[in-house]
Description:
The protein has helices spanning about 1-15, 30-40, 50-60, 70-80, 100-105, 125-135, 170-180, 230-240, 265-275, 275-295, 325-335, 360-370, and strands spanning about 65-70, 90-95, 110-115, 135-140, 145, 150-160, 180-185, 195, 200, 205-210, 225, 300, 310, 315-320, 340, 370-375.
Amino acid sequence: MLSSLVDFIRAMYSTDDFIPLHAPIFSGHEKEYVATTIDSTFVSSVGKFVDLFEERVEAFTTTGKAVATVNGTAALHTALVMAGVKVGDYVVTQPLTFVATCNALHHMGATPIFVDVSQVSMGLCPIALEAYLEENAHLNCDGMCIHTETGKRIRAVVPMHTFGHPVQLDELQLVCSKWGIVLVEDAAESLGSYYKGQHTGTIGEYGALSFNGNKIITTGGGGMVLCKSAKAGAHAKHITTTAKVPHPYEFFHDEPGFNYRMPNLNAALGCAQFEQLSAFLKSKRIIATQYEAFFKGSDFEFVTEPEYGQSNYWLNAVICPSKEAREALLAVTNNASVMTRPVWTLMHKLPAYENVPKGALNNSEWLESRVVNLPSSPILELS
Ligand SMILES: *Cc1c(COP(=O)(O)O)cnc(C)c1O
């Protein structure tokens, strides 16, 4: 089974060389657009590619306003500022995520509370969220959600669409509305994923995308804040550009700001990558179908999209029957130069986040010991 998996992946990628987990493909206008920025000298914070890239993402996701940033962590940080998260607040998120979700909270002096993921989506479970709040929180007389033991405010909930698979947003939104909490989506992994036909990252009050080198499209490093309204978008843009009040020559900044805006050089790469997004998505769906067929009938369960949504299949994943089977899969494939990877160490096991409040995390623990990511780079010949 395991050596046939190596053969299967090698055949799919038609190569005897090292097979990475996820490599970017630059087969479009990348060099041309990047060269344009150099020729024009507009490589930095001013230039047409930033606007163009934002417009493309707005149209694709049907969001009110998209604001390009230097990376996904910065996009998430900005989204959380927009959501009103303050120093000392608690923010509920899942322990099964990439560390950036928690770091963005930490940067603003907020603390995560970890609530379990659902087996349906591998993202934040609405039932576990409701149960945690029922047991550990109350609404004060102003309708604010208060963590009972510490008296601190629980301001926001940040679910993450794990590997591109959409979480149960309607149910999460319902719990958030009931408890007066803002929903912010970490959609860093889910460009091209839909929840009941609506693009992920546009359903919560704010969403954040990432264009890091390993994501479905890349700008080198980059991210985007998705805002529902033009007004919110304008404010997000303002705080990511040092909160400078527009003026031909005066420098006046009307609030604390960030230097988070995406350089034109990176946006040029993004525009070229964006032109290939639909081909990447098509190819990833075919790769996922092939993996699914390969694992069918074995005791390894290939992770498929939940029935209510459409996944971009950014990183393919398989659930091994046991931790021992996981170790064997990782060893056999990596020794054969086919890169596979266990899921992230759960956030509450990292030194920075081991002493924060948490609910029962049984599903997260179970998945941590069994999930393996498989090579998932797009294969353009397939689309
Ligand atoms: C990639 C990623 C981010 C953002 O990462 P950057 O490297 O800062 O762009 C945030 N959350 C998750 C879950 C991610 O996978």
